Amino acid sequence: MKRLLSAFAVAALMSVGCSEKASAESQSDVSVNTEDENINKPTAFSADSLIVADSAVISPTLTLEYSQKLLVFNGVNKPVLDSLYSDVLFNDKKVLSDYSLSTLQKSATARMQKYFYDSKNEYRDFMPERPQKWDQHSAMTLFSNHHGFLIVQYTGYGYTGGAHGYAFENYRTVDLMAQKNMVLEDIVDVKAVQWNKILLEAVGSRKEELFEPATLTYSQNFFFDDRHLTFVYGQYEIGPYASGIIPVAVPLAKISAALRPDFKARIGIK
Predict the structure, then answer these.
(1) Which of 182, 197, 228 corresponds to the end of one domain?
(2) Secretion signal: which residues (predicted)?
(3) What are the backbone angles phi and psi of residue 246, rounded to the nearest 5°?
(4) Same domain, 64 and 145
């Protein structure tokens, strides 16, 4: 922990015009051993986390706040990590050379500073008349780790003026045994399911909130457990802003015939 705090202290010195706060959290309860069929020694998986956070007053009427939580993995190969951090950490879609704590801390700090710098220039001619706080917050969380399937949740919210803010909730799944990112087709034969019928049954009374119920279909934004496959639809994706983020949980029993045999075996479905 002293070493982690030292790394954060160095990062704090990099901040210009702000009083940066950074912290780390250990998630020791998520350590497991996984083994690739082609490797004799098991790969030890573990995850820690780090947080960068700061605020800045850019005018008498506008204060900005920013925070980002990132996971720090051990036991996950680089191509998978490239995908897990894409759209979350990369500037200009450039992958990092590695994903060590120090590299992630440096990149996250630079991204935060860029947010303050860009916002100050972008909003220069659009300052609110009354004091307001605009913000951007995001978090990368270990959602579940069972049967060798790692599910990472990405959440965030923010406000930049106007009638209301925004929020998002996304998921990505990693097969730790195969060391690869998963898509829905790895779990189920998507062509063998009548998705509209099954999803409308699952959404229930919320059907009335949907823009076009007849076009509702599956999404690559999903997570699963031993009983359900849940699709998560973002704001405005299938319904109005007032409906918020809409999760639709499909019982695995409803699509059992279409599930991949190896997936069923992994999670214990007969």
Answers:
(1) 182
(2) 1-24
(3) -115, 110
(4) yes
CATH number at residue 209: 3.90.640.20
Q: Could you tell me which of 220, 218, 183, 187 has the C-alpha nearest to residue 200?
A: 218
pLDDT in tens, 89-125: 875 668 999 999 999 999 999 999 999 999 999 988 8
User: What is the arrangement of strands in the sheet containing 222-224, beginning at the earlier edge strand?
Assistant: 222-224, 228-233, 246-251
Question: How far is the CA of 25 from the CAs of 6, 101, 191, 247, in angstroms?
Answer: 14, 12, 42, 28
The token pair at 118 is 């860009």
Q: State how many domains the chain has.
A: 2
Q: Quote the pTM value.
A: 0.85
| Average pLDDT for 2-21 | 37
Q: What is the crossing angle of helices 101-122 and 2-14, to 10°?
A: 30
Same domain for 191 and 178, yes or no, is no
The boundaries of the domain holding residue 223 are 184-267
If we measure between CA atoms, which residue out of 166, 157, 136, 171 comes closest to residue 235?
Answer: 166
Indicate if 204 and 121 belong to the same structural domain.
no
DSSP codes joined into one string, 9-76: HHHHHH-SSS--EEEEEEEEEEEEEE--TT-SSPEEEEEEEEEEEEEEEEETTEEEEEEEEEEEEES-
Q: Six-digit token pair at 186?
A: 């790895």
- 159-169 tens-digit pLDDT: 999 899 999 99
- Under DSSP, the state recorded for 137 is E
Domain boundary among 149, 182, 215: 182
